[in-house]
Structures are given as structure tokens and as C-alpha cells.
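Agenda item 2: manganese (II) ion complex prediction
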Amino acid sequence: MGKKVTINDVTLRDGMHAIRHQYSKEQIAELTREIDDSGADIIEATHGDGLGGSSIQYGFSKESEEDIIRTAVDNAKNAKVGVLLLPGIGVIEHLEKAYSYGAQVARVATHCTEADVSEQHIGKAAQLGMDTVGFLMMSHRTTPENLLEEAKKMESYGAGTIYVVDSAGALTMDDTRQRVSLFKENLSSGTEIGFHGHNNLSLGVANSIVAIEEGANRIDASLAGMGAGAGNTATEQLVAVMNRMDISHNLDLYKTMDAAENLMKPMMERPVQIDRLSLTLGYTGVYSSFLLFAERAGKEYGVDARDILTRISEMGAVGGQEDWIVGVAQELAKEKQNA
Ligand SMILES: C[C@H](O)CC(=O)C(=O)O
Ligand SMILES: [Mn+2]
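Presented output:
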């Protein structure tokens, strides 16, 4: 089926959310070596919210940005190291520094209707000669047709790959199929298409396969699904399914299974799994990295964290609005008192 699939591993970057950005240099080094040895093509390594993400708003990371990127670069023999940048959180200077530390892939992420804020960053990454990717987050929040228009903008700025990003794990298989197939029919034939899934509705692998069937050839995955919410598409599960379907890729199944089981799972602070809270993220379409914030606020204010997420969804929150969560928890607590 189609071209060989490139696996962009997000264990270190999206996985940062699940460990509150607290991977140590030693953990980054060990994970990079195992992921690289298992055959992943790209290893993304930054704070969960990308370059410049270490802050009071998103949580401070244990290690500096330079140490995170350099440790990954120093320990990857074959894989390229990538970085994520959300314009506004990260700036051009962050990108230049990441490049100087050895990052070769730059993924510029915007909300699905705001591609126009990525022009400078995509332009800069392309000018540096980086493998430049546009990353359209919360793709369920707009129509396939509109998402295509945003993808075309990123393509025109110089991105060689455009991703459908299911940040909330809310896309169904038909939703994924419609978005990826429109990209395939309408973007330039030289533009690669990617898919980034979250497993909140238990569709991470299924949606990734649908994306491949429709012409995507870059897929994000992480060991044991380590990532925000119920996690990302689990590498070892995806590899097993791709093997069964004769989809060509570079990964070794047993190595991904062993790394997930022996290395990744023991590092998890909170099991990365589908539970009532992560399922609510997918069900209501809320950004996966809100999970731990909502859980904490629910405990602090004595309210059901599912109600927080539902209210946040009704308010139309997008990534970056983590600070709304405490306000909503306080509001719900007051309503409970007055009931
Ligand atoms: C900053 C986010 O964690 C990016 C991402 O992985 C997503 O939107 O999903
Ligand atoms: Mn993600």
C-alpha cells in the first residue's frame, strides 16, 4: 500500500505531557537509544508544548531545551531529531537554536483555523534547510474543506509535509478519511501527508491505518502510547497491524514491544490509558494535554473533572487555554454549593 511509512516518534515530546515535562537527561538518552535502535525515522524531542513551552502556563520542564535536544541528537545514530514549535510560544530564535543543537526536522503547529500565523516560522525552517512540517492541531474543530484551505497556506509557506492532527482524539475513522483524502486529492503531489492520533476514543491505530490507506505516509506514534490524554498511537501496536497488512516501514516489532514494556511503562507516573477522564476528552473534543490540569483542578475544588472538560468543550477552548480550567472548576464548585 503506497509509499513506505515514515514513523515520527513522539514518546519524548508528546510523552512529556504525561510525565509533566519531567523526563531526566538519563531517561531521554535511554529512550532515544531504544527508539532509534527499533528503527523509528524521526524522534521528536522538546517540552510537550514545543520550543519555549517550559513556563508557568504549561509547566516547567526538568531539563533545559538545549539539554533535551542535544541529548536526543547525541544518542540517535540513525533517526533524525525533530522539534515542535507553536508560533507565539516558540519564536524564530528558538528555532535557530534548535537547529544549532542538531535538530533536522521542524514541525510548526497551529490551531486548525490559524495556519496564517505559521508563515514566518515555516519560512525560516525551510530556509535553514530543515525538513519542514505544518501541523494542524484540533483538526476535528473545522470542516475537511476548511482544513484543506489551511493546509494549502502552510504548503505555500514552504512546508513539505502537512499533518492532520487529532489533538483531542475526537476524530472518527470517517472524519480522518475525509480529511486525509481531501489533502491527497488537492495538495501538490510532492507534499507528504501526516497523521497524529490520540487514543481517547480507542481509535489511534485505526485512524492511523485509515490515514495510510488514504495516502498519508508520515505517522506519529509513541512507545506504549506515551502521550497526552489516553496517549498517542502506540508504536508497537501500529507496527503489529502494519505488519499484518503488509504496510512497509522501518521498525522492528519485537524491539518496539520490548522498549514499550521494559523501559516506557515503568517510567509512567500515571498510567497512559483510556479511563473515564481521557475518554471524556475524546467524547467532548478537548485538547488531550488538558487531562492532568483538569484532574488536579477537580480534586482541588471537589468537582467531577468530566464536568470541567465538558464545560471547557462548550466554551470552545483551544490549546494554550489551560488557564481556563481553574476558573471553570471554581465556577462548578460555586454552582454545586448553590444547588
Ligand atoms: C502542543 C500539542 O501537544 C501538540 C500536539 O501533539 C497535539 O496537538 O496533539
Ligand atoms: Mn499530541
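Discussion summary: The first strand starts at residue 6 and ends at 9.
Owner for follow-up: CH.
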